[in-house]
Amino acid sequence: MHIKQEATERHTLSVTVDNESGILARIAGLFSARGYNIDSLTVADVTEDEKISRITIVTTGTPQVIEQVVAQLDRMVPVHKVTDLTALAPHVERELALVKVVGTGDHRIEALRLAEVYRARVVDATISSFIFEVTGGTEKIDKFLELMREVGLIEVARTGVAAIGRGKEAL
Amino acid sequence: MTAEMTGADILIQALNDLGVEVVFGYPGGAVLPIYDALFKQNRIRHILVRHEAGAVHAAEGYARSTGKPGVVLVTSGPGATNAVTGIADALLDSIPLVVLTGQVGTPLIGSDAFQECDTVGITRHCTKHNYLVKDPAQLGDVIHEAFHIATSGRPGPVVVDLPKDVQVASALYRKPSVQALPHKGYRPQVKADPALIEEAVAMIAAAERPILYTGGGVINSGPLASQVLRELARVTGAPVTSTLMGLGAFPASSGQWLGMLGMHGTYEANMAMNKADLIVCLGARFDDRVTGRLDAFAPHSKKIHVDIDRSSINKIVRADIGIVGDVGRAMEDMVKIWKAGQHQARNLAPWFEQIDGWRARKSLKFPASTKEIMPQLAIRKLWEATHALKPIITTEVGQHQMWAAQHFDFEGPNKWLTSGGLGTMGYGLPAAIGAQLGNPNALVIDIAGEASIQMNIQELGTATQYRLPVKVFILNNEYMGMVRQWQDLTYAGRYSQSYSDALPDFVKLAEAYGWKGVLIEKPEELEAGIAAMLEHDGPVIVDCRVAKLANCFPMIPSGAAHTDMILEADEVVGEMDDEAKALV
Question: In what residue span(s) does the Thiamine pyrophosphate enzyme central domain sit (chain B) (predicted)?
């Protein structure tokens, strides 16, 4: 017997929640308990009084699973609002990566040149290393890392996706 | 200005303000301050169980039979972990509970202290919501919100973890209003969208083969919802079936009643679901025990799904119309719009003719025996002897549970208490104790199996202590019957570990606990045995020795469609393929 697999889609969700202890465990736990995927998850408080946090979750699943993810998140007591940004409207997605590259000579020059192409900033430098700061969509960062692997990448830290809808309306 | 109170006193005061009359619990180190506060008052009655598992099921029985939330009080560590099964049970069956757990003092949390466990972590996914209260000033609000969350929207269990120092420390308490509760985002939708109701009514009026598929949501909505369901069935003329959880919402004596649907449902209910052109799902959730093989489930029908929990809609089966709201109020709106629009039900006579054809298969028929007591007959005799008394029936889990669902007819809601979603053996006896406490004058019977009853048998002592005249009617076939039945169907009769060996003498056991014991061994003793049980003004165990190898039919086997039911006369012993085995 084989387990069946179905075609999946990638969706970016924005979830506003009460900023209370255990909230991240609650959200992450929902995903593991119900077998949903988390590709990326970011969280930070976004209101002046620090009472509301905004969580951005990138998940993959069948359309039916995505609908369930939204409904299941929405019924959690500390959750205020769940928005499927992918389904809703055009939106902007960004993440930031810090990339440590080690090398000398040609590799070092090539790394700097590529960083310029990707508008990555040098935030730390030694005789034999750079740390680049690069922001952009997930694909851009993936591509940048792919290139840096060729020229001495030894360490990466990524933030995960933050996303917001385009236009003048707020969520 | 109000004086400060200890956390324990704030808790008791809040429970009083919330109208709590009964708490089921078991003391321990981390709840001693609360037990001391309980000692000094006399408004809240504490029922001392014999095991925390019993406390939670008793609270569930109390909640389901009265419609009020059940309250549990247990200590930290093992007290809390022992309560987990009942909490998960209440989550799956949407039963309103508030479970108060003691916790080690806040400075000790995380230090692997004596009787410490991460209660909020452990119960996070088997509660509707849970709390760890670290500040006594917030305790009152949390308790009020816990009750609000447990009882509103889709009901469920809420755990409040109370560190010992928070119980001892002092703070001010003021009864909060619902609007002032901490979680502003929690606003369950109760009133359904009127446009969708209009659309649904038009669909029902246009249907040639409609069916009302009702569930536990109708019971949870309150007794009024059961009345409105009857009215909806009357005006639309549609036949009615129900899940295990919804039994009693619609009277079994009605001509529109098809019996329960699903794995052990009637042939007519399942065939009608399969052939219907419109399924109106009212407070049910298309559980796998109801749908059978999904790709063959009700292939010719449109579906209207009414549920208070948005996540139930489109979870398993796609609805043509999904209506979020309280099912009782939604049905009320449907009836109003039906009447206001002067809708006439279509002529459903051809549909009922078809249904009568399925009814003629008499799927609940069972073989007669003069030598052995057929378990179905035992249930039927029990019903005959007691139905006029409108008893509350609890069950354990297994064959006896399904036979009770099939052969004990219910006319009203809140009379049938069974563990449906989680399927918890050991549920019935403590649930009966809880139901009896909530309904002191009712006849409460736990229909049990000899295996299940042993899972919480210690609660016999609780009934004795509080002089609760509950009756336990054991269908004793010396097997974990449902396991054995599946082994017949799926594993060619290899009875792996399903024999109930070394059984106690239940009559002597009853007597040891101060109960009466009755033994029924032959069919001709059934009526007298049941009469003896009813005559005794106190708790009774009936050990009813039934046919050992009887199987529960009809049955939709794993991975099969509604149209592939096995009836009593069919050959059943065999081996299934891996796909069917994997489907549970």
Answer: 197-333
The pLDDT score that the predictor gives to residue B583 is: 64
Q: Report residue A89's pLDDT band, with 50, 70 and 90 as the boundaries.
A: confident
Domain that holds residue A144: 91-164
* Domain final residue pick, A55, A88, A121: A88
Cβ neighbors of B374 (< 8 A, separation 6 or more) are B366, B367, B368, B523, B546, B547, B550
Instruction: Inspect the interface and report whether the beta carbons of A72 and B311 lie closer than 8 Å.
Output: yes
Q: Which of B271, B455, B482, B565 is catalytic?
A: B482
Mean pLDDT across chain A: 95
**Chosen domain end from A34, A59, A88:** A88
**CB pair distance less than 8 Å for A75 and B311:** yes
Q: Does A74 touch chain B (CB under 8 A)?
A: yes
| Chain B residue closest in CA terms to A18 | B183
Catalytic residue among B5, B13, B52, B352: B52
pLDDT of residue B584: 57
Q: What is the CATH number of the domain that holds A20?
A: 3.30.70.260
Question: Residues B546, B523: contact at Cβ < 8 Å?
Answer: no
Alpha-carbon Rg for chain A in angstroms: 19
Q: Is residue A105 part of a domain?
A: yes
For chain B, which residues score pLDDT lower than 50? none
The model's pLDDT over B14-37, given as tens digits with 9 standing for 90+, comes to 999 999 999 999 999 999 999 999
Residue A4 lies in a domain: no
Q: Which residue ranges form the domains of chain B, and what is each CATH number?
A: 5-180 (3.40.50.970), 194-359 (3.40.50.1220), 375-552 (3.40.50.970)
The pair phi, psi for residue B438, each rounded to 5°, is: -75, -20
ipTM for the predicted complex: 0.90
| pLDDT at residue B432, rounded to an integer | 98
Count structural domains, chain A: 2
Our CA-based measurement puts residue B123 at a distance from the nearest CA of chain A, in whole angstroms, of 11
User: Are residues A80 and B184, on separate chains, in Cβ contact within 8 Å?
Assistant: yes
Residues A45-63: what's their mean pLDDT?
Answer: 94
- Residue pair B443/B386 in contact by the 8 Å Cβ criterion: yes
